[in-house]
Design goal:
The chain is an alpha/beta fold and 255 residues long. The protein contains nine helices and eleven strands. Strands 7-8-9-4-10-11 form a six-stranded mixed sheet, with helices on both faces. Strands 1, 2, 3, 5 and 6 form a five-stranded antiparallel sheet that branches. Helix 5 runs parallel beside helix 6. The chain is globular. It comes from Zoogloea oleivorans.
Length: 255
């Protein structure tokens, strides 16, 4: 078993001659929390879209857990355990928090079980759903209609519905975006908790979150890797500091 659960080689995505992602060699170690950072337009989201097969690469190779997944269908890759946590749109706003988690659990089981046909068989999932809600500290919200939940808690629910799919590797897209201080702290604790037996790759703007949470950082600029390493090292890299000037101050992260 390779120490790297996910690797890309020469990963490139061109749109009408413009390279959004250019020759990216990414290596994510098994069990790590790995962050993808960089100024706006650096290609972070495109990398995520390539990894989760929403976009086909122009060139390059993606290997996950020893399998070449470059040309695989998104659903096949997800079943291998590489799962992306979506923004809130992935949950159903008019259902309760509990019902949303249950739907995630049903997805994992696959439709061939026709679980929705019987109320009784849904109850089997209730215990599992409550366990997941407990894991993300949402038991008190179980019967709350999702649309009525505070923003930060919706993001926790989104992580719970992703966990329902039992990922070996989770991709988190800006998990703390738009959150206040208290919510950020809660989500950071949650990510640390759910990382216990899985790998996490996250795109994150908030550098203090990255500094506190991540084992390794890859900095993208204009679609290419500018630097890689632990935060301490990357944050002192003059090229990285220069890339961040004007978009966000790297030094703020230390406080």
């Amino acid at each position: 078993m390779s120490e790297f659960i996910l690797e890309t080689a020469g990963l490139t995505k061109e749109f009408k001659g413009f390279a959004a992602v250019s020759n990216v060699d990414l290596q994510v170690r098994r069990g790590h929390i790995h962050a993808l950072i960089g100024p706006n337009g650096a290609g972070k989201t495109t990398v995520f879209n390539l990894l989760t097969k929403f976009l086909p690469p122009t060139r390059g190779k993606i290997t996950f857990d020893g399998h070449d997944i470059t040309r695989e269908a998104p659903a096949v890759t997800a079943r291998r355990g590489l799962v992306r946590s979506f923004q809130i749109s992935a949950t159903f706003p008019h259902l309760t928090v509990m019902e949303n988690v249950r739907i995630g659990l049903q997805r994992k089981l696959g439709t061939e079980f026709h679980f929705w046909r019987s109320e009784k068989s849904l109850n089997v999932l209730n215990d599992q759903a409550m366990e997941l809600l407990e894991a993300v500290d949402l038991t008190s919200f179980a019967d709350t209609v999702t649309a009525e939940m505070p923003y930060g808690r919706k993001r926790a629910l989104e992580i719970a519905t992703t966990l329902a799919l039992e990922p070996t590797m989770m991709l988190l897209d800006e998990p703390t975006q738009g959150m206040g201080h208290e919510d950020i702290g809660r989500i950071v604790d949650l990510i640390r908790k759910v990382s216990a037996n899985r790998t996490i790759l996250m795109v994150e703007h908030n550098l203090s979150v990255v500094a506190n949470l991540c084992d390794r950082i890859t900095v993208l600029q204009r679609g290419s890797i500018l630097a890689e390493g632990p935060y301490e090292e990357v944050s002192k890299n003059p090229q990285v500091l220069e890339a961040y000037v004007g978009s966000s101050d790297m030094n703020d992260a230390h406080h």
